[in-house]
Amino acid sequence: MSHQEQVMVHGNLCAPGPPNNAGYNSDPVPVIIQTESRDKWSKKMDFLLSVIGFAVDLGNVWRFPYICYQNGGGAFLIPYVLMAVFGGVPLFYMELALGQFHRTGAISIWKHICPIFKGIGFAICIIALYVSFYYNTIIAWALFYFYSSFSSTLPWTNCDNEWNTENCTNYFGKDNVTWTNYSRSPAEEFYTRNVLAVHESSGLGHVGYIRWQLLLCLFLIFTIVYFSLWKGVKTSGKVVWVTATLPYVVLLILMIRGATLPGAWKGVVFYLNPKWEKLQETSVWVDAAAQIFFSLGPGFGVLLALSSYNPFNNNCYRDAIVTSLVNCLTSFVSGFVIFTVLGYMAEQRNVNVEDVARDKGPSLLFITYPEAIANMVGSTFFAIIFFVMMITLGLDSTFGGLEAIITAVMDEYPDTLSHRRELFVLGLVVVCFLGSLSTLTNGGAYVVKLLEEFGVGSSIIAIVFLEATAVSWFYGINRFSNDIKSMLGYTPGLFWKVCWVAISPAFLAYIIISSLMNPQLLTLFDYEFPDWSITVGYIIGASSFIWIPIYMVYKLVWTPGSLKQRLAVCLRPERTLPDIHTDSMGLSPVS
User: Fold this and answer.
1) In angstroms, rounded to a whole number, what is the distance separating the alpha carbons of residues 344 and 172?
2) Residue 319 belongs to a domain with what CATH number?
3) Residues annotated in a binding site for Na(+)
4) Residue 232 falls within a domain, yes or no?
5) Residues marked as binding?
């Protein structure tokens, strides 16, 4: 097996497991320890910052605050915390433990868990590619804004630019300004007409031409990504010391500045004011489950990849708790950063906070917040640091997503790729860049929305559902617990076992069923996506998930023997030695 070895230890390696222990699998198992051929993190903090950088992304800043106020303000924190405790964190812990014990990527790990489910690894890699096709374009937008911020007067401050229309209405610093349904702020027109140029596209049927400015920005982004990943975790582990910590410095600065703005308290009250009646709505609990799942990010193969470079005895349990807490607290604090500014805007417009808090998704970061920044004292400084924060938040997640693909493929084909990492990473970056070209067109924002909705969406949730089921029910919860004991020296408690076996899969099934039963109308900038585009979206979603049943059929057909024998081989992990663990004195059998 790649980058792994089976180690003979002193003592009787064939000692049987505990007799009559229900669920205990006494099949021989391999001992997997780190070898010199596999990369290692230089420091523990390199790993922690990489995980935090992946989990804390742009969604923490734009998605959580919007979902929180939309679903009951402070009351939303109740379903959010419950979904995190019983669903998100157990899955997060499971992936860190799996990656650290088996020390391999998302594809080859399945021969050690349940070979028939190996298609999950291929599906994860395809989804990671889809994410790279649109996510880096959003970072490119932020880079465009960053470049545009180096001006004494920010270009989205007034309506005197060539891209502005007669509907452009600047209300800051002016009295008796009439705001109608047709009014557009300077920040909105800068985003839609100068950055995206969506007015030159009629929709997905005619997306227009590639915008060279965005093409250049994306090229710079992928250049940074390549030179951060080309040498492995030893280089990316150093880069994250900047990209994972800088956003927290900027968030602190922006929160302090936001708190000093007039009307900031209105935004905070609106953000946290509990609406308890909202807890009776099913959609609130669905949103809480989806938010914590996509925020922590299990199932993307990233946690498997990053933890596979850890020492065998690393305390992955503590890592899971710490990084999950940091992620959730970041989301919560980001709400204050956003809503103090929304309160300020409401004060300036002389309207209610809900009237300026309608934007969601990227629009919150590219229209609403820049608009407020443009009218602050020191607007250029705050604009620059805000978009630096966005770029670094996005880069961390890109590092993680592409490292998941790199680790998975290189561990699956070590003989071919183990000494060609630089070339493989270059090829992967080129593929991602070419795949992103459609998102750089005049109608690229519509492509981004389509990929975001269908390229990830229900597909990744269904994949994690199968992953959790395969580990808990096919691999076996007792076997998995023994794996953790071999690393940490103690078995996971009853709470974790119950979550892995029942609660977390139910949590995922709940999200899948709810999303399928209540499909949302897909719109962007008053553009309703046509029916044919929705069909294309479902095909995109199916194109990743389909590899799971395809591989199952392939594995069953090509495995020799009767059907019963084939099933036995396909469901049985490749294990040749009994469970052992590494303690302070070395390797010893699990009792």
Assistant:
1) 11
2) 1.20.1740
3) 53, 55-56, 60, 295, 327, 393, 396-397
4) yes
5) 53, 55-56, 60, 295, 327, 393, 396-397
